[in-house]
């Protein structure tokens, strides 16, 4: 076997066909192997490293006298894979939108637009500047430390942020005692946080139902594909229509996941933001109530304590 490999490798030389005459000079020929001088043990390895088109030319009956362009043209005729570069390209719009069918056009794409609009709206409204503004917190703290309770109440009443509403509720109940003011603050913060959570819940709903809509499109596409195969009566259905049905199944699933993943991620982000802002608002308002209570003086005793002291 080694002797036979050695003989084959010695016969394969540049510019000469092992089974034919030498090729004429001056033409663009397919490159041949330069392995005649290799040791006997490397002959098989060198043959395996030959160019891919050389093997293709042997399969389709192209001799070494043919040019490189002849080999390419012949291989394209016999192998669709080698001719793939010549196929018409499909646009992204056609592949991911038009092939999705009415479920993609009428439901999933509008749902994606709504998701983006809601996310942008919540980014502008649920942020520190609108819920716990630093400037307002500094003004309230400075006024509380100076004992300007009227100033604190005025600033809180004029502001619509979470801190402003909670401070206003606490200052309104300060006359009933420190504990009553704290309860009013917690109630105001909880009410504001629940209102914001109900608003961002739309993102959670979209994230939950969009994969189900995509799955619905998948089922519709597969039903259409199998119905077409059944209608062919044992034969081969039209390939383009069958591919269109499978495209509906895949594209709708793609859009369902494409909508659900960002929607659920945005919902988790805004929910964490709301929880953070609520905790900060309660902490800040508790400090303001403590400063206001110290400025106002000791709390009056409860009514029961007053009556007991009067009887004594």
What's the helical proportion of residues? Answer: over 70%
- Globular, elongated, flat, extended or rod-shaped: what is the shape? rod-shaped
Proportion of residues in extended strands: under 5%
The averaged pLDDT comes out at: 76
Main beta-sheet annotation? none
**Number of distinct beta strands:** 0
Count of individual domains = 2
Query: What is the H/E string?
Result: HHHHHHHHHHHHH
Class of secondary structure makeup: mainly alpha
Count of DSSP H/I helices:
13
User: Poorly predicted ranges (pLDDT <50, ≥5 residues)?
Assistant: 4-21, 23-66, 78-87, 304-310
Distance between the termini: 124 Å
* Quaternary structure annotation: single chain
Whole-angstrom Rg: 40 Å
Give the helix/strand layout.
Elements: H1 2-11, H2 43-48, H3 52-59, H4 68-78, H5 92-96, H6 101-125, H7 128-131, H8 134-145, H9 149-158, H10 162-172, H11 178-231, H12 239-296, H13 303-311
Helix pairs in contact: 6-11, 6-12, 8-9, 8-12, 9-10, 10-11, 10-12, 11-12
């Amino acid at each position: 076997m080694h002797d036979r490999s050695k003989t084959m490798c010695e016969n394969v030389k540049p510019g000469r066909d092992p089974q034919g005459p030498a090729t004429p000079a001056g033409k663009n020929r397919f490159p041949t192997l330069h392995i005649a001088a290799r040791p006997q043990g490397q002959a098989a390895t060198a043959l395996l490293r030959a160019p891919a088109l050389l093997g293709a030319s042997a399969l389709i009956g192209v001799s070494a006298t043919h040019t490189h362009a002849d080999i390419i043209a012949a291989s394209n005729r016999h192998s669709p894979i080698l001719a793939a570069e010549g196929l018409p390209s499909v646009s992204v719009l056609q592949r991911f939108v038009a092939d999705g069918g009415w479920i993609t056009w009428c439901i999933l794409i509008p749902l994606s637009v709504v998701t983006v609009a809601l996310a942008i709206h919540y980014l502008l409204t649920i942020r520190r500047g609108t819920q716990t503004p630093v400037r307002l917190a500094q003004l309230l703290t400075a006024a509380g430390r100076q004992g300007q309770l009227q100033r604190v109440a005025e600033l809180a009443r004029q502001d619509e942020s979470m801190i402003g509403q909670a401070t206003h509720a606490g200052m309104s109940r300060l006359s009933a005692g420190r504990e009553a003011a704290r309860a009013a603050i917690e109630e105001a913060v909880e009410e504001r946080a629940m209102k914001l959570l109900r608003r961002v819940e739309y993102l959670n709903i979209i994230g939950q139902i969009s994969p189900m809509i995509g799955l619905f499109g998948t089922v519709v596409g597969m039903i259409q594909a199998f119905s077409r195969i059944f209608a062919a009566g044992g034969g081969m259905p039209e390939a383009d229509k069958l591919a269109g049905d499978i495209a509906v199944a895949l594209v709708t699933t793609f859009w369902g996941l494409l909508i659900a993943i960002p929607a659920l991620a945005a919902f988790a982000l805004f929910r964490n933001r709301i929880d953070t802002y609520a905790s900060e608002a309660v902490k800040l308002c508790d400090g303001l109530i403590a400063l206001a209570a110290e400025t106002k003086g000791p709390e009056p005793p409860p009514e029961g304590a007053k009556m007991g002291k009067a009887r004594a």
